[in-house]
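Fill in residues.
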């Protein structure tokens, strides 16, 4: 245990809290196909700043994607996903630059605020029809990259495009899984260039990948077509609640 605490640079309480957070976030990702990073960012930001969570989240997303990628390739709208990933590569450095330049409390508030706005907009089923165009497709990818560089929640931006494009729930879920997998491959290069993917971030990511993957497997087993319409609203309400609490806490401290 002391060795794990040493390589993750966490106290025992912080370590156990993050184990619980990453497992629950994995469960959510397993049955909903998204919200892993948003769930961790909304809660773990009280322990680590966004710039420290972003490299850890890379490993968590990649580990979850490896478990779910088979269905992603099978059912996803691949041409759409490839275009979104291209835009994502352009946007990532912009968001990461912003996160690195801001004070810690400001970056926390910005990351949590983005999560609240995106989750609330999706819960309200805001439909941005102008996104269902060629410029809207690439523009969505760029914005998703910027948001990922700030809060690692670009998949929630992608969901707006998929909704505007009127894709089926299965295609939407699979496209998000494929986007997260391919986006993670490209974002690693950016994180290394910016020096954000350091030893501590990689160590935390590898350690907490295990509870994340256990959560994903549990979430996949919980997924049933009968309850599918309820997963997304429940996840979004939970995200809004957690991020709002974190936002208030950050603003009051």
């Amino acid at each position: 245990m002391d060795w794990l605490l040493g390589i993750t640079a966490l106290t025992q309480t912080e370590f156990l809290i993050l184990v619980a957070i990453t497992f629950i976030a994995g469960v959510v990702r397993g049955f909903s196909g998204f919200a892993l990073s948003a769930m961790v960012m909304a809660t773990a930001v009280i322990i680590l700043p966004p710039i420290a969570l972003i490299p850890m989240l890379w490993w968590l997303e990649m580990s979850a994607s490896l478990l779910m990628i088979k269905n992603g390739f099978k059912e996803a709208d691949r041409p759409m996903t490839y275009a979104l990933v291209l835009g994502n590569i352009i946007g990532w450095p912009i968001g990461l630059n912003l996160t690195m330049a801001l004070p810690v409390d400001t970056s926390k508030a910005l990351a949590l605020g983005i999560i609240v706005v995106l989750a609330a907009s999706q819960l309200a089923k805001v439909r941005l029809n102008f996104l269902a165009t060629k410029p809207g497709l690439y523009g969505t990818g760029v914005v998703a990259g910027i948001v990922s560089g700030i809060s690692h929640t670009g998949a929630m931006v992608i969901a707006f495009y998929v909704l505007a494009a009127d894709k089926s729930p299965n295609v939407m879920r699979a496209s998000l899984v494929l986007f997260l997998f391919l986006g993670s491959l490209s974002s690693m290069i950016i994180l290394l260039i910016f020096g954000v993917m350091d030893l501590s971030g990689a160590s935390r990511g590898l350690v907490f990948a295990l509870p994340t993957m256990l959560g994903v497997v549990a979430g996949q087993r919980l997924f049933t077509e009968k309850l599918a319409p309820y997963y997304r609203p429940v996840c979004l309400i939970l995200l809004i609640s957690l991020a709002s609490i974190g936002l208030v806490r950050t603003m009051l401290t």
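The two ends are 31 Å apart (CA to CA).
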